[in-house]
Amino acid sequence: MRLSRAAVLAQAKAAALDGVRRLNCCANLFLSLPAQISICRDLPNIEVITFSVNGISDLEPLHQCQNLSELYLRKNNIRSLDELFYLKTLPRLRVLWLAENPCCGPDPHRYRMTVLRNLPSLQKLDNQAVTEEELSQALVDGVEITAPPARSSVENGWSESTASSATGSTTEPESELLSCSLEETNKTQDELDLKPVPRDKYSSFSPQETDCGCNKRNNVLSAILLLMKELDAEGLEIIQQTVVRRLQAFQKKELQEE
Asked: Compositional bias (Basic and acidic residues) at which positions (predicted)?
């Protein structure tokens, strides 16, 4: 499915595409396989993009986002590091989160060195600061990418090889792609510069409870955390007052049961 103009404007709360500075589409259902982000070609002033936990495989639409400084692509369907070719033209890119994609491969060192060789201006990769020593080592251990990924036949932004890979991946349960475990929620917290959720306060579900109910609760929690960043001070105050009232109601109910 395609990320539409209307969806972008609604999510970013902007009147026009050239006014969009931040776009947060983490774990969005409208970006299910095969995901298309061609709308990014029309976002000249975008600075921060969060597309984590979607079905994205083609990064070509991002190469025109010249003001992009932070890009979060964790847990997508990016199969080849050749896709970095499209990010090499972004002069302001400083933060990239690419972990948990097929392109990372079985060798973490080779993967990190290749990314840093091609994107030496990065200050943080996969939530880890980039050091001068790594940048020097990347010139030796990393692979330089000089051409875009080969696609034998492209239709609607997808190659035959990518489409077949995506088809294979859809055999996994949808909850595997979109469920938000404690680890998943805390990674989202990191992306949003929020504190991690303590394990003892994350879930009160017992092992006997169904995965469906647990996933629903966790997805709701993750969605709330993501949406909170979009609120201003007045909105956060309303949330705070609502939470206080809810907690008081729960405490009152517990006292009555005792």
From this structure: 184-202
Distance between CA atoms of residues 182 and 205, nearest Å = 12
Q: Where are the extended beta strands (E) located within the chain?
A: 22-24, 48-50, 70-72, 95-97, 124-125, 128-129, 154-155, 158-159
Residue 57 in domain: yes
How long is the chain? 258
Residue 146 belongs to a domain: no
Strand-pair category, 128-129 with 124-125 = antiparallel
Question: Which one-letter amino acid corresponds to residue 205?
Answer: F
pLDDT (tens digit per residue) in 139-179: 999 999 999 998 643 333 333 333 333 333 333 333 333 34
Residue 230, SS3? coil
Measured CA distances, 136 to 100, 103, 117, 120 (Å):
25, 22, 9, 9
Q: Which residues pair with 48 in a beta bridge?
A: 22, 70
Distance CA 172, CA 24 (A): 25
- Is 0.90 topped by the overall pTM? no
Which residue range(s) make up the domain with 237? 228-257
| Closest C-alpha to 103, from 62, 139, 149 | 149
